[in-house]
Amino acid sequence: MKSPSLARILFACVMAGVFPGAGSRAAATSPTVLSLRLLPEEAVLPDTGAAQRFLVLGRGADGLERDVTSRSRFSLASSGVAQVDPAGRVTSLAAGETALQVRMGGLAARASIRVSKVGAQRPFSFSRDVGTILTKRGCNSSDCHGGVKGRAGFKLSIDALHPRDDYRWIVQGGDYQVMSTEAGGAIEPRVDLDTPDRSLLLQKPTLEIPHGGGERLSPDSPDYRVLLDWVRRGAGYGDESAERASKIRKLEILPSEVVLESGAHHGLLVLAHLPDGSREDVTDQVRYESSNLETAKVDSEGTIRGVNPGETTVLVRAPGLVASARVGVITDAVTDSVSYASRNYIDEHVLAKMRRFHLRPARRSTDAEFLRRICLDLTGTLPPPHRVREFLTSRDPDKREKLVDLLLESLEFTDYWTFRLADLMRVGHTATGMAEHGHIYWQWVRDSVATNKPYDQMARERITAQGYDGASRHFLQNGVIPRPENAMAEQFRVFLGRRLDCAQCHNHPYESWSQDEFWGLAAFFKRVTRSEWSGFGTSLIYDDPDGPDPDFGADPDSKKAIHPRTGQEVEPVLPDGSPVPAHVNTSPRQTFARWVTNHPWFAEAAVNRFWDTIFGRGLVEPVDDFRSTNPPTHPRLLKALARDFREQGYDLKQLLRRMVLSETYQRSSSPYPGSETDRMNYSHSLPRPLDAEVLLDAVTSVTAVPQTFETTDKGMAPPGTRAIELTMPDIFPSAFMDMYGRTDRAQVPERSVEPSLNQALHLLVGSTYTEKLAAEGSRLDRLMAAGATDAEIIEELYLAALARYPRQEERDGLEQLIQRNPSRGEGLKNLVWALLASREFAHNH
Amino acid sequence: MRRKPLPVWAILCFALWGLQGVHANDKPQPSDPELRSHHPLGGSMGSPFEIRVRGKRLQGIRTVWFECEDVRARVVTVNEITETGEQDGDEYYRKRTLALLGQDQKEPEFVAVLEVRTTSETLPGLHHFRLVGPTGLSNSLSLHLVDQPLRNEGDSPHHRPSQAQELRLPSILNGTIEEKGELDYYFFEVEAGETLAFQVLSGFELGVNYWAQTEVRLYEPYQSWFGTDRARPLVLKGPRLSWEPIRVRSSWFDRRDFVTQFVLHPLLEHRFEKAGRYLLSVGTFQGRSRDNGYQLRVGPARNEIVSRRMIGAFGQPAHADPADWLERDSSTLRQFGSFYRRLTDDRLAELRARSVTASSSGSDASPSMASTRDQEPNDSTEVAQELTLPGFAEGRIDFPGDVDRFRFRVTAGQALAVEVETPRLAPPHFSPWLKVLDAQGEVVANNIYREYGGNGIDPNKTIERKTLHTFEEEGDYWLLVRDVTDHAWGNEFQYRVLIRPQVPHVGRMEVSLGVFSVSSQLIEMTDRLNLKPGESRRLTLVADLEEGFDGGILVEVDGLPAGMRVQAATPASWNGLLVEGIQYRPPGEHIVDPKIHRPDRRAVTLVLQTDSQIQSTPLPRFLRIRARPMSANRIGPPIMAGRIPLLILNSPENTVAVPDRQEVALAP
After folding, report:
1. CB contact under 8 A, B463 and A718
2. Which of A111, B134, B387, B514 could be stapled to B655 by a disulfide with Cβ–Cβ 3.0 to 4.6 Å?
């Protein structure tokens, strides 16, 4: 074979197809309806003409519940209390009780109706009455007046989160200014009390005068009349007690999960929970948004239409609140009722959702699949061939559990999870300003992992770090104390999984975080300062009640926590407004650290992050972007994991053990037919590319040619050091690892593992591969020197690279290729290359 | 064709090269011997041993000169190194820059083998030595002499845990890191509950090379399921970084002798809960240096083998520097470790001995010093303990965030000094924060000072050993003592605070050849004088004027050879900058803190001049420089300010008439 590259490709072809592929689709099932149910099952209405919609769901023989409201007939058990229209909308008439009955094709269901004596309409509330219209009509959405600067000088808080501010801009007028509390522009009200129908608030959305946002209101709509009446009545804010009484505490969506077929429709009901415990149907008072229009669409009435198979969420926005419903779109329903094995609560939650979403789990992984996966996930290390043989031949029924325990206690576990957490904690030269400090910071991470330090303790130590050792250099990046707002936002993102940065300059455009809350939290870091002796890098970090010093001649205020809009210095305040004790002798960061680690978000963010590492996708994705508008795929599982993590004392090993011993983790990466597109429900193991460091170590392990790591200042890591053991990426440059997505840890890491042309070229001619293939003393060299046959070498290399034996067709094909090669050595090297180039090798699956 | 822009590092190098040019006229040509490293780092007293010294311009070296009289050595061989291998990082950057400038001529390196002998009078500790050759006197390296058995590492490779060599405890062992990234493994046996201390001394602080700082790690044996030859690192408690004055002379653009730098902590302590075999490894940090000697000391904690009183990795000098006077930590006047310095009951007498008010007999009567022990609770003004002046407040930080309070009474106009000693741990491990509060709770004195470096607007805060204050109003005041952090506490965090009257006196003095203008720091472009007939050299003496001393300084120089004279000169242009130092502040800057505090300084420029007929000196001799405080009508006693070794070369042959003998020469 003249061309080595061509030869290698032939080798690769022999190996193609061994990686998990797609199966076939199950046959469709009949949608015959077997039973009905009504949502809600009961309703309590005031006697003020209040209305409640009902949904009728019919369960088919295939187990799928479909919306059959439009095919149902409604009636009330008694008249006088309420009335019902053909669409299932019940309106109260007078106090009393009755029942709503529904029939369809011989099936029936009922819901109880109680109308209570109230007598008077709810008083006006600006937030509920005006805020609802502004929200439902999208006036205060982030791409309109709810944006950071508002639109055309008119600023509204997103989803009417801050009604007092909204009232000011509508009734008093003026242009919103980001960096000042003062109004800019013309201070003219947007309501006209003398001629209410000439109010800008009405003329713009009805397009009586030009409006960039187009028509939002029709003059004959009820919402228009509500606004006009409000202006006519003097455009008051309303009574504070009425405001409190009508404030929505919670939104309930019925059903909270919807599964429907492509092209099918399904309605939603939205109930507002009020402070007095009552529920109000606000289905037609909210705004609906689909998170993925390719999967499902939703109209302004809350009716969902399935588009393509997949999963998404429908967001429901009401004044001050956002809720979501999960929507699964399927091609065909699963008809069988097979019971799948469940080892712990993880499986119960995952299987329960799979049942609801008509997915079937893949078979259990083979021992070979499991062995490679568990070694990579817990230690970032490939199992050596003799261990693969040992594991595959073992008949011990508990061998998986025993291996997990062994790996959790291994030195390689400490290596790997130090690497993972050092990435998260941003241990680097540029992040710490000095190699020695980066090293000690790394050592702190390593010691924490080695001793299985509770994760909450680790968080507290990092947040409150002082002195010069341990994690203190985190507060002296490149010799500079970070600004309080930056320090706080970074800790918040790392430990609470939320990105607050937007709230630094303005109220958060998508979430309920206000700018005041942001700065109240930032102020916990405003005392962080340093004291030096001489030169760079010799600083002690501590908290000085006088605050830090400005750098390089900057204004003294430059280091204070100054609210950018008010210009006032901010004192530490927790978001719940709870008092913060005066910190005379101790750092206020201790209070912040306790608040962070005691907050339910802390455990949720942590388990989600580690779940992502183990399962290849977070329950919330991205892992540090928890938002009400980015809900978890398995909210109950997330809470169960978080509770477990807390109850186990934030024990990382216990958490990982729980995850990897679940059946969910141990599923094959070959999906069950029909579940191929599933990437959210863990119906099969998600293959994922190896991280750059792990990949380089794996290449080194298979070839058995050590990798040397030189430092930027001509030092060298001890021989045998692996990439995952390197303390700081920016001290140990590596074009290979940079190409495969290694981060420099200068920012909170977001690894890019997307394949690239550079990677492909490097695979063909890159020094990492060519040098290791050509090096003397490699695994291949040793096998050949020991007189191993081609078959033996193929087997050994398969075990080293893929942790499995070659299949017979692979053996036959590869042996033939080797024999056809004029040089046996070259043929075998081509085999090594083909293995390293295979997707099966470069992925954890 | 468009030229590629210069890389950033090259631009930086040019800039630094430019800085170097500022001192081009002061910089001696590199013709004298330069020692870079040696190994083993030391030896045991009683029997001769050999050391290998690596350096440049060692051709013709024949004599070893110790700064003390109780150690002898002879030159056995001097050979040029043919294979130098990979350079250290610093050398690498230097050569890269020189190559850019077309000045990359290679200068050969040599290895001199010395045989060292001790006498019955030899004291253990650090002994400084230099080599004398035809081109002059070299810089100094230090030899660690111990009065314990000392062995060398074995010949067999021991770079993997399975190859570990046995270490019998207690032990002092000399080893060498021959290659970059190399780790030397040793194993040892311990009893359950045994606490051992591990100290590793390296060449970086003794000689010239910061890149050679060593690292010691402890392990337990480990059988890897993955089949690798590894050991499991032990998790250690205690500080992992140390703050050390290190020499950076090898840094080509920075001619300061010392900078302070965080380095890996050279001293570890560990309690072994389980009996059995353990391992340790020694290597250079990040594998940055090769051909680097180390001395490993392992023994029971608080054993004489391992001294906690050793200032970091430096080691304890066998002979104290007669000019040593630690009044405050200062990087401008290189002095470190003053927090350890004992505050004695004779403190006032010690200070008066450096003033014009010293009695002729030198025996001043000091008032008795009262001492008040810290007793918890004393964290509030109401329960503060009474302190009698002058007197000591002694205590420790008992719990995280502990703030000890002491009340004392002053009269109007009383000028007091507050000094602190931390006998067990010093900054950065224990950084005592002293504040003096008045009855309104306002801070009137504070030992954290703000300085302004750079161009005057770059603030640095320093924790000082001493603070001064003149109390305008009579009344009660409170002394607060804490650590700057809120988590340091325990028995190691002990302090002694002395509040006493101020005594105007001469503080730290330093003799130097120049100043590093960028940071206003004194430098020693060389720590020796190699002069030819007819040459002159300028020296600068800078003295701190403490606690209001505003007199003059009378300078005396002893040890001049015939044909050499010393004269006073106008200050060099940079003297003003040095004297004002980092006290200066830019006009109009409102960030300047009124609490900025540094002593005033006086600088005296001396010019040493040799006659054209001066005789060469076969061996070096010390020039001793003494200073006497002066006032209008009084002169205080002489105080040793510094000493510098001098060698007169025999021009024009540029050779020195060294006696043709292999035996050691003694200091005059």
Report:
1. no
2. B134
Q: What order of strands is seen across the sheet that includes strand A279-281?
A: A250-254, A269-273, A279-281
Out of A15-29, A520-534, B347-361, B522-536, pick the least confident.
A15-29
Quick: pLDDT tens for A155-164: 888 888 889 9
Residues of A (670-729) whose Cβ lies below 8 Å from B? 708, 711, 713-721
Rg (CA), chain B: 27
Alpha helix (H) ranges present in A706-807? 735-739, 757-765, 767-774, 779-785, 790-802
Do the Cβ atoms of A820 and A10 come closer than 8 Å?
A: no
Q: How crowded is residue B203: how many other Cβ atoms within 10 Å of its Cβ? A: 29
Nearest-by-Cβ selection for B486 from A381, A585, A719: A585
Strand pairing report for B258-264 and B241-247: antiparallel
Nearest to B625 by CA among B609, B645, B602, B649: B645
A13 φ, ψ (degrees, to nearest 5): -65, -40
- Cβ separation A551–B458 shorter than 8 A: yes
Interface test mutation site (partner A, options B88, B241, B264, B434, max chain A beta carbons within 10 A): B241
With contact defined as beta carbons under 8 Å apart, do A163 and A318 qualify?
A: no
Share of chain B above pLDDT 90, in %: 41
Question: Smallest Cα–Cα separation from A31: which of A82, A3, A65, A5?
Answer: A65
The pLDDT tens digits of the residues spanning B450-471 come to: 666 555 555 667 788 888 999 9
pLDDT at site B668: 32
Q: Which residue has the higher pLDDT, A765 or B260?
A: A765
Cβ contacts from A onto B, under 8 A: 188
Judged by CB atoms closer than 8 Å, whether chains meet at B591 and A406 is answered as: no
Terminal-to-terminal C-alpha distance of chain B:
66
Centroid of chain to Cα B592 = 30
Written as six digits, the tokens of A679 are: 């990437």
* Residue-wise pLDDT tens digits, B544-574: 889 989 999 999 999 999 999 999 887 766 5
Its pTM stands at 0.88
Q: Which amino acid is at A100?
A: L
Nearest to A705 by CA among A800, A827, A579: A800
Choose among A644, A618, A646: nearest CA to A632: A618
What are A352-377's pLDDT values in tens digits? Answer: 999 888 888 999 999 999 999 999 99
Count Cβ neighbours within 10 Å for each residue of B53-71 and write b for 16 or more, e otherwise.
bbbbbbeebbbbbbbbebb
Asked whether A266 and A304 are in contact (CB, 8 A), the reply is yes
Chain B residues touching A534 at Cβ < 8 A: 259-260, 331-332, 460, 462
CA–CA dist A159, A299 (Å, integer)? 18
Q: Looking at chain A, which residue has its C-alpha nearest residue B588?
A: A553
CA atoms within 13 A on the CB side of B378: 24
Sign of CA dihedral A460, A466, A470, A472: positive
Q: Do B462 and A435 touch (CB under 8 A)?
A: no
Q: What is the DSSP string of A92-146?
A: E-SSEEEEEEEEETTEEEEEEEEEE---SPPPPBIIIIIHHHHHHTTTTSTTTTT
Q: Which of residues 471-500 of B touch A (CB under 8 A)?
A: 482, 484-488
- Taking the CA of residue B249 and the nearest CA in chain A, the distance in Å comes to 15
Whether B476 and B407 have beta carbons less than 8 Å apart is answered as yes
Question: Do β-strands B183-190 and B165-166 pair in parallel, antiparallel, or remain unpaired?
Answer: parallel
Which tokens is B552 given?
A: 């003059």
Q: What angle do CA A586, A587, A593 make, to 5 degrees?
A: 120
Query: How far is B171 from chain A, CA to nearest CA, in Å?
Result: 25
CA angle A530, A533, A535 (to 5 degrees): 95
Contact A443 B243 (CB under 8 A): no
